[in-house]
Amino acid sequence: METRNSIHPEHAKRMTTEELRSEFLVTEIMKADEVTATYTHIDRVILGGIVPVQKKLGLPSGDLIASDYFLEKREIGIFNVGGPGMIKVGETEYEMSFRDCLYIGKGVEEAVFSSRDKKNPAKFYYNSTPSFIDLPTKKVTMETCRKVNLGSPDKCNVRVINQYIHPEVLDSCQLLMGFTVVEKENVWNTMPAHLHERRMEVYFYTDFPEEEVVFHFMGEAQETRHLIVKQNEAVISPSWSIHGGSGTTNYSFIWGMAGENKDFGDMDVIPLVEMK
Question: For the segment 205-242, what is each residue's pLDDT rounded down to a tens digit?
């Protein structure tokens, strides 16, 4: 498991491109027949990928976090961004189609991941946070999630925020997750930018050709920086950083949040003209 430390904003101001990428950008998340895990000390979030091709795979080892098993003290949200797959939790099997999400609460000892077709394997992306309450496993689909339509064509930011792990959809301890889809002929997300002092966030960019990229903007509002992000890479965003971007084509991204509240609207919007 790779570990990322917390970075002070004064330190981030002086970082080179490679230093910014090494601290905030997570690459090589999806590896065939492997489970990847990156642990960030920002709210102790773990993110990673599970890609079963030739064999079935399980959750990361609990040894990585000094637990008997991975979800002993944690909850997890899992999205499928690949071909049809399955997740077996206890004796229950959940069919996982493209953009389906499965929430698993604290205390589940084992989950088994598999693909229906090794030529088109499932690609599971997950976020996990510490949890202090026992909550049931629940599957959410694009049809059953909560949808918020935002943006306008003249701003090139028409998008749908699909809220999956959200208080109006299911109970969680602190984890929030969703899937934002930027519509065709639109490229901007999360602009005007905002901060939420009480929560961190992770953006996982997907659904665009390998030859295209997304420019993810980060940093303090008056000290912005950017990261060039490729398909199926993620950006760790601390609470002091803006988080938004623009792609060379339309795209989607999975956002995950952790912190001391689950109020999606708890944000401080920053007028574009005040940014530097």
Answer: 999 999 999 999 999 999 999 999 999 999 999 999 99
Which pTM value belongs to this model? Answer: 0.96
Q: What is the pLDDT of residues 56-108, one digit of tens each?
A: 999 999 998 999 999 999 999 999 999 999 999 999 999 999 999 999 999 99
Strand, helix or coil for residue 214 = strand
3 state DSSP class of 223: strand
Domains delineated in the chain: 2-274 (2.60.120.10)
The DSSP call for residue 51 is B
Helices (H) and strands (E) in the chain, counts: 2, 24
Q: How does strand 244-247 pair with strand 188-189?
A: antiparallel
Contact 239, 208 (CB under 8 A): no
- Token output for 52: 């079963």
